[in-house]
Amino acid sequence: MSPTTTTVRSRSELLDSTCYLLTLLVLLFASIELCGAATVVDVYRLIQYDLAGVPFGSRFSNLNHHAGSSIHSNDSDLSRTVLIFPIRDLDLDLIKDYVVKKRQLGGMLFLLPRVFGFGREGGSGGDEGEKDVAARSKLLELERLLVHASLPYPVYFAFEDENIEAILAEVKKNDASGQPATATNGGYKLVVSITEPKKVAAPIITNIQGWLLGQKADEETAQLPTIAIVASYDTFGAAPALSTGSDSNGSGVVALLEIARLFSLLYSNPKTRGKYNLLFALTSGGPYNYNGTQKWLRGLDQRVRESIDYAICLNSIGSWDNELWIHVSKPPENAFVKQIFEGFSDVAGDLGFKVELKHKKINISNPRVAWEHEQFSRLRITALTLSELSAAPLFLENFGALSDSRHFVQDSAITKSVKLVAESLARHIYGHQGKNIQIFAENSSVAINPSYLSSWLDLLSRTSRVAPFLPKGDPFINALKRELEEHVVEVSAQHETLDGIFTFYDSTRSILTIYQVASVTFDLLLLLVLGSYLIVLFSFLVITTRGLDDLISLFRRPPSRKVKTA
At what angle do helices 520-546 and 3-31 cross, to 10 degrees? Predict the structure, then answer.
């Protein structure tokens, strides 16, 4: 092998090594964006559903965009920006403009105050500050807007904390200085990696019922009359994973459980067992036209339905002061309705507050019902709904909104509601109408247990209960069934497929990672510095191992083919 050939090959090997190192460096910087994870937070996605084939809610789930804090102008391109909005500082008109006009965004992230968190976070029930009340009002209006809109980008909710507030402050500072986060400027990037939402196939709703059987006289053969106490336990809200519904209808559920406990004490003794059967029912499908109540009623034996004297439906009874409402479908002039109302009104007067009667005639031709008792009325069963609400809620509203947290529920209000129902029932069952007799007096063996109410309300306030995401073997449903079995007999669960025109999608919660991203200018500068370092290092190694002549020869043109031949 000639010396010329050896030199050319050596030069070629060195050149290949250099090209390899530089190529590796370029590929490294092209594929990796210099960033560091600033914080990780739990996020909860806006509900996604179809109503009669029409899409609503957030239609996407994955995020990988820079963070922003404001909409700079109508001409701003925010298709790759996730806007962060604290609920306390929310400009609802701005949000409405973007939602109604379907402007393009990379996504939205709403920061909820801690008072809307699970359980008792943020404070104790009833101790509302002015800021909390204002935030609650904004959140209610925001939820109405988002639930009935179709948004072609991801929308998430998260709770405020120190880390995300510090990041938001820096994002606001950059936006105010005219340097919003971009690939050129750097900033913060929000990333959510989650599987694409899939349809929830054939969602199941579960109804739970149990009995306290009355006592017949020896010669009596006719079936005893029945009084039904009913409460719907499932919820619906803008974020399914946060829809805990402390008041609507967690308050109704805990009241039903306590009423069952109280009357089980009376019915366990033959001397105080009434001549009425008491039927307790926890129903599902409330937000969807009380579909569970409808199926449960139609599934009852006809003789049982015909034996129902009247039904009391409990709905939102945990946030009131001096007034409750009794809603009925039959005219107030009806003798039986008047008798029932007078019984409640007498007890309320003895307890120091009042109840009002409100009549709303049902429209048989309209399949939608506004109150749970209307499903009874359609079967010609006398029924009422006891609620703090003076008017029927609108479609898909007041079924466990984001703002319906434990912080805003008063234990004392639920206690008064239980006292009202229990005493009214007892006076009716034992024939004490019009008498100021307190059967469930304080400090008696059958007194209301505030700790029992509080513990169950705490559990409900930590548990999201959107029916399509509650399988029939869900631990919460099993816990309800076991608790009812502690107090009543013949407890059973009925599993039905949710009817209607709803289609729901999963992927309701995820993890948001916030990265601090370096600007492109910084990346290029660092690339230049590292590239220069590698060139200097390579030159030094060649000079020390092979000499300066070999380094210079790398930059010379190789001999032409004619020279080699010669």
Answer: 160
| pLDDT score recorded for residue 127 | 45
Instruction: Give the H or E element holding residue 108.
Output: strand 107-112
- HEC profile for 245-300? CHHHHHHHHHHHHHHHHHHHHHHCCHHHCCCCEEEEEEECCCCCCCHHHHHHHHHC
d(CA 422, CA 448): 10
Query: d(Cα 44, Cα 40) in Å, to the nearest integer?
Result: 13
Residue 106 has a pLDDT of 93
Main-chain phi, psi angles of 430, to 5 degrees: -100, 10
- Low-confidence spans in the chain with pLDDT less than 50: 1, 3, 6-8, 11, 14-15, 27, 29-34, 122-127, 563-564, 566
Q: Please state, in angstroms and as integers, the Cα–Cα distance from residue 84 to each residue in 143, 199, 236, following that order.
A: 16, 28, 24
> How many Å is the Cα radius of gyration of the chain?
34
Buried-state track 380-406, b at ≥16 Cβ within 10 A, e below 16: ebbbbbbbbbeebbeebbbbbbbbbbb
Which two tokens mark 489?
Answer: 């007999």
Contacts of residue 183, Cβ cutoff 8 Å, sequence gap at least 6: 66, 520
Which pLDDT score is estimated for 31?
A: 45
The strand order across the sheet containing 502-504 reads 150-151, 54-58, 48-51, 502-504
User: Is the CA virtual torsion 368, 370, 373, 377 positive or negative?
Assistant: negative
